[in-house]
Amino acid sequence: MPPAASGKSLLIIGASRGLGYAMVEEFLQRGWGVGGTVRGNARTKLHELADRSAGRVEIETVDINAPDQVAALRARLAGRTFDVLFVNAGVTNNQQETIAEVATEEFVRVMVTNALSPMRVVEALQDLVPRSGTIGVMSSGQGSVANNTRGMREVYRGSQAALNTFMRSFAARHWDDPRAMVLMAPGWVRTDMGGADAPLRIEDSIPILVDTLLAVQGKAGLQYLDYLGRTVAW
Ligand SMILES: NC(=O)c1ccc[n+]([C@@H]2O[C@H](COP(=O)([O-])OP(=O)(O)OC[C@H]3O[C@@H](n4cnc5c(N)ncnc54)[C@H](OP(=O)(O)O)[C@@H]3O)[C@@H](O)[C@H]2O)c1
Description:
The protein is α/β, with parallel strands linked by helices. It contains 6 helices and 7 strands; from the N terminus they run E-H-E-H-E-H-E-H-E-H-E-H-E. It has a 7-stranded parallel beta sheet with strand order 3-2-1-4-5-6-7, sandwiched between helices. Helix 1 (about 20-30) packs across helix 6 (about 200-215). NADP nicotinamide-adenine-dinucleotide phosphate binds next to helix 1.
């Protein structure tokens, strides 16, 4: 990856489409160099963007649910540093399905993809982020235990609350780490996951989310913030 205009670099995990792809576009506009990951060998929107980026977008491949692929990615990135590591990849399931109804395999798929695998990525790649850098993970407002007064999306909520707790444990274990850490709630956004009824367009959320992500740089410790920079109740 050639030096970016800003001299800054982002590594984003899960950038083939949706919010992750939009974050790559936004960081590019701000002069950053970006490493973005896709799954598998199929050509994606990110490949089209990389072709137009004069070498400022570098594509890597990882399925976060495959520990051997995470380890291989870490090995390929040996010796590199990124000012921001951001783990965006995630999935959802049938929102109507309650914890009473969900099949065990479906529960495992959502919990592993949304809670265990992002943490495995954080654990494996965190040493690529310098002391001045930021480790971010895409969470959701649905991960708030305190704000869960209406239920719905039970399995997804549980996975995001678990992710938040694991990230808090990571931060507690790294209590003297000078790096900024952040769990981001992007709002309900129209993507493949968010669906057509979501009130926010990608362009309503992502530029402001990126402002928020950049504003935590240099602030040690973990925050749980919405895209507008407001603290979300745990
Ligand atoms: N949209 C919303 O309203 C909303 C609200 C709150 C939180 N979020 C969170 O924001 C993140 C992005 O959501 P989105 O709306 O952009 O969803 P999306 O359009 O469905 O995109 C999901 C992204 O995650 C990747 N991904 C899924 N499983 C993966 C795996 N095992 N390994 C690697 N990559 C994987 C997908 O890659 P492929 O293309 O290969 O499938 C895709 O790039 C998710 O973590 C989601 O929970 C979204």
